[in-house]
Amino acid sequence: MLIRPAANEDANAIWAIMEPIIRAGETYTLPRDMDKKDRLAYWLSPEHEVFVAEENGEIVGTYFRQANQQGGGAHVANCGYMTAVTATGPRGRTRDVRAFTGPALAGADFKRCSFNFVISTNERAVRLWQSFGFDIVGRLPAAFQHPTLGYVDAYIMYRDL
User: How far is residue 49's CA from residue 141's CA, in Å, rounded to a whole number?
Assistant: First the structure.
C-alpha cells in the first residue's frame, strides 16, 4: 500500500469514498445532503493535510491530519479517516490504520492524537482504535443523531504517539 499526499486529480476518487459514508449518516457529523463541492471543500480544506492510500493504482482510503488546537495544543493531532466501502474488510481496515497512524502521524511533530467525536454505535471503529492503543477518555451523552437509532453517545479517544 502506498500512502501519499492527495493531489487535485484525486478529488473524484476521494468523493467516491466519501459519498456513501456521508449519505449513510451513521459515522460522520457532516450533513447527509451536503453536496460534492462542499464535502470536498471540507475534506481538502487548507487546514487539513490530506493523504490517500493507493493499492494497485486505486485509491482505497483517505485521511486528513491537523493540529487539534493551536498554540499549546498544537502537539496533539486530530484526524479524519475514510476507507472505501469495497476495502473495509477486517484485514483491509487494520492494514489501512496501521499504515496511516504509523508514518503519517510520526512524520509530523505530533506527540499525541485525539479523535474528538467517535460515534459510539460505530463499534468496529471503536474496537479498531482501541486495538491501536487509543483509550476512551470522554463520553458525550446523546451527542450524535443517528439516522435510525436516534440520539447516541460520542466518544473522545486519545493516545500518546
Answer: 30
Q: Which amino acid is at 75?
A: H
Within its chain, how far is the Cα of 86 from the centroid?
16
The model carries a pTM of 0.86
Query: H/E element holding 100?
Result: none
- CB-based contact 48:90 (threshold 8 Å): no
Convert the pLDDT of each residue in 100-159 to its tens digit: 555 556 567 889 999 999 999 999 889 988 988 899 999 999 999 999 999 999 999 999
Place of cell 464535502: 39
Dump pLDDT digits (tens) for 43-94.
999 989 999 988 888 998 898 989 999 999 999 999 888 888 776 555 555 4
Exposure on the CB side of residue 8, measured as CA atoms within 13 A: 0
Distance CA 72, CA 14 (A): 32
Q: Count of CB atoms within 10 A of residue 64's CB?
A: 20
Query: What amino acid occupies position 116?
Result: N
> How far apart are alpha carbons 154 and 146 in whole angstroms?
11
